[in-house]
Design brief:
Order of helices and strands: HHEEEEEEEEEEEEEHE
Low-confidence stretches: 1-18, 264-270, 337-343
Shape: globular
Number of helices: 3
Number of strands: 14
Largest sheet: 14 strands, antiparallel, barrel
Oligomer: single chain
Helix content: under 10%
Amino acid sequence: MKNIVFWTMILFAGMSKAQDIHFSQFYMMPLQQNPSMAGALYELEANVIYKDQWRAVSSPYRTFGMGYHMRFSKKKKPNGYLAAGANFFSDQAGDGNLGTTKGGLSLAYHIKADTYNSFGAGLYGGYFQRKIDYTNLTWASQYDGLQMNTSLPAGDVGQANYSRFDLGAGINWTYNNTGGDIKVAGNNDLNFNLGLGVFHLNRPTVSFLGSDDRLNMRYVFHGNGVISLSNSNWAVVPGFMYARQGPSQEIYVGSLMRYLLSQNSKFTGFKNGAALYAGAYMRMRDAVTAKMIIEYAGWAFGVSYDVNVSSLNTASNFRGGLEFSLRFVAPNPFSSGYGANNSRY
């Protein structure tokens, strides 16, 4: 009975408040934060991410995402350029297999204000489907006075799935102290990116019961940067994300440290350049996340683990979510003439 009550609470909390998914490595899914991030930092970027959450509690929550975006410009150093991308995710949660599948396209335009600053704006259009499996769920109508009896009818529990159209928009600002014309091995980065994304502008209805309940708009304010420490191979890589959707909010802040391996190091043997990142983030009132990223040439592999510190730790035993990510960018950010600012988290 306790298990039934717990999962019923989790299910309806997810439907009414935390309606959107979140990744601990949010920087690995830029279009999930803001459609204007298409083409903002890289000429081409492809991402894959997977999260396995709350395995200690019972049925784990599993989320898979992928994205791709690129710039469109025939000029080597354009004053403005168009970029486009696509992203997709699939999420499955709890004993009811509450599933969300969503895909969409982003279109952005970026203007270079001067040597160091650029601004971008973007639009998003997508489509999502939600479904639920009532098979493993039990209801008050199935209590026979002594115990839960699944042979009794559940009553009118609503439809099993629905689909909706979704809209979003965003803006961002990028600062780069080198204008993108320096080798990563120089390790003298000072650059930042700030953005604001707004999703569910059309507030689609989200109810399995056919009611007029509408999805709250989601606001995402995010930023990251790279601050190199002079005369060393180290850099501080801070970041944050603030998201608000209806009564729910998420504050996520922390920093990584980057150790840069020289492009032609006789000690490591790396010819394409490499860097190692490690650090931690705090999701306020929820979890602490340990993170590590290994970057080699245009590839980056990330892993993180959430340690739950909220009141849910009674059930989770301080265990949270394991997350893996893989990213590819082009051109190689370690190659000559390609800016260190393009390597950021």
